[in-house]
Amino acid sequence: MSAGGIPDKVLRNGDLIIKLEEIAKDTALLNGVLMRTKDTPNSPEVVNYAPFTLFPSPVPRALFQQALAVQTHFNRLVDRISQNPSFLEEALASTIKVDDFTARLFKIYRQVLQEPQSQSIVLGLNRSDYMLDQSEDGNVSLKQIEINTIAASFGGLSSRTPDVHRHILRVANRMDELKQILDNNPAAGLAKGLAKAWELYGSEKAVVMFLVEDIQRNIYDHRFVENELWKRNIPVIRRQFDEVYKTGSLDENKRLFVDGQEVAIVYFRNGYMPNNYSSEQSWEARLMIERSLAVKCPNISTHLAGTKKIQQELARPGVLERFFPDEPETVAQIRDTFAGLYTLDLGDDGDRAVALALANPDLYVLKPQREGGGNNIYGAEIRQVLEGMKDSSERTAYILMDKIKPRPVHNYLLREGTPLRLSTCLSELGVFGAYVRKGTDMVLNECVGHLLRTKSSEHADGGVAAGVAVLDNPLLV
Ligand code: ADP
Ligand code: MG
Ligand code: MG
Predict the structure, then answer these.
(1) Within this chain, do residues 382 and 316 fall inside the same structural domain, yes or no?
(2) Mean pLDDT of the 420-448 span
(3) 128 CA → ligand 3 middle, Å
(4) Between 193 and which of 49, 150, 189, 434 could a Cys-Cys bridge form, CB atoms 3.0 to 4.6 Å apart?
(5) 401 assigned to a ligand binding site
(6) What confidence score (pLDDT) does residue 14 get?
(7) Is residue 146 in contact with ligand 1, taking CB distance under 6 Å?
């Protein structure tokens, strides 16, 4: 089950693995692949390595390149969706009737749409995630799982993991494989986008504000991006919604001030799920930010463009063509990455999707409009949930998606307090995109790096932050 990756005889060499475990963990610590602990998430006194794989996992080079190559198209697609109110209205109409969270975001969107827009600078930092689907005839293809347009994480830590795996390979005497691990620096690329937008905002004293959670376990991932900004003499502050509510205000030109400092950019690393808004004050802070002259990363329409319902709408025939009327090749390149996606709206199409899922639940994933991992429904539970809301509009809070079946590989998942064992694993490849637009002018549009996350195949769902997946690197094969 090595699929061209690290051979089984190495994976099963017990003495070597025991030796590598300690070296791997020390090397992660030395390279800053860090997380704060569960018990003290807001203190730097005790930290640990972020969970990661002992070895890099194999990824076919051509599919990896395909994912990188399509990223600037996804950047433009998200940006175009965000500028199309009638599409957003239409696509999300059924969802916002039943999903309170999306409805709440949509309300803010409608509200700011009514006001004159003085800020023409748009900054997008996203991550498009893929799995490699293996069909029954053995053919492997790149399939998009989702695109994250808000708070896409691990660009910082994944900038440091290549050196960790390279060191492990050296110690394991696998020199030939070193060149199969690429350099990766999303931290620099994300910072480049932030720096460009800050420059265009045009006020040297204005700060970049990271909008953060109250629990800051993953702060080192942020710090890598933050420190890239400081290196360019761009000041950064970190604030939570309630702090923005208490100390924030807009001046007569809608400039945003927080604690007396003008904010050029609000970079959301929070605000993507309902419990990030602990009170009405959080929502008021979000609204104040959206109404302000600060560059929002993302702005509310770009946030909405990343919902699963939009992803499903894009997969309908003819929709991509609306966004790229003169670019059939762009359309083809994007569509090539789409898995089967099905509406659950009331009507014939929705009824057909329900029937498909009830007949073969193992072939599908049922997805609500949520982020952060652990929200999807699989297997027998799909039946249960769908039967409970079969002909009700409740079902329109979800979309249905073909289940991607990647080829499993063996690896070791290193995680605090977990004894080492060889696991059967599945990987998910993320690609980071950055773009900056001023008015109608795209001033920056780049693919800025990648992320590989790997989890035990026992888990259907869940990311690194959710404690399921761990950081990895593609070993290009
Ligand atoms: P979230 O926004 O919560 O991260 P995702 O769409 O990424 O939502 O789903 C979470 C996880 O569920 C993914 O990381 C992946 O492991 C799994 N998953 C999602 N969609 C599929 C799919 N179509 N096939 C297989 N696994 C999936
Ligand atoms: Mg997501
Ligand atoms: Mg995801």
Answers:
(1) no
(2) 98
(3) 9
(4) 434
(5) yes
(6) 97
(7) yes
Which residue's C-alpha comes closest to atom 17 of ligand 1?
A: 461
pLDDT at position 457 is 92
pLDDT band at 472 (very low <50, low <70, confident <90, very high): very high
Question: What is the share, in percent, of the chain residues with pLDDT greater than 70?
Answer: 100
Same domain membership, residue 467 and residue 386? no
Is this complex's ipTM strictly greater than 0.90?
A: yes
Does the structure show a pLDDT above 70 at 301?
yes
Structural domain contains residue 123: yes
Atom index in ligand 1 nearest the CA of residue 375 equals 3
What is the Cα–Cα distance from 188 to 196, expressed in whole angstroms? 12
Number of domains in the chain: 2
Mean pLDDT along residues 112-126: 93
User: Which ligand is located closest to the Cα atom of residue 468?
Assistant: 1
Check whether residue 219 and residue 359 sit in a common domain: no
Answer yes or no: is 19 a known binding residue. no
* Active-site residue set: 127, 146, 148, 153, 308, 367, 371-372, 453
Residues 23 and 155 in one domain: yes
pLDDT classification of 325: cutoffs 50, 70, 90 = very high
Which residue's CA is minimally distant from atom 16 of ligand 1? Answer: 461
CATH number at residue 381: 3.30.1490.50
Residue 1 has pLDDT above 60, yes or no: no
The residue from 349, 375, 403 where one domain ends is: 403
Cβ(133) to ligand 1 under 6 A? Answer: no
Establish whether residue 403 lines the binding site of ligand 1, counting it when its CB lies within 6 angstroms of any ligand atom. Answer: yes
Given ligand 1 and candidates 365, 402, 470, which is best to mutate, with the most ligand atoms within 8 Å of its CB? 365
The CB of 366 under 6 Å from ligand 1? The reply is: no
What is the residue range of 392's domain?
A: 340-403
Is 160 annotated to bind a ligand? Reply is no
- Is the pLDDT assigned to residue 336 strictly greater than 90? yes
**What is the residue with the minimal CA distance to atom 4 of ligand 1?**
373
User: Does some domain include residue 1?
Assistant: no
- The rounded Å distance from CA 15 to ligand 2 centre is 39
Residue 36 within any structural domain of the chain: yes
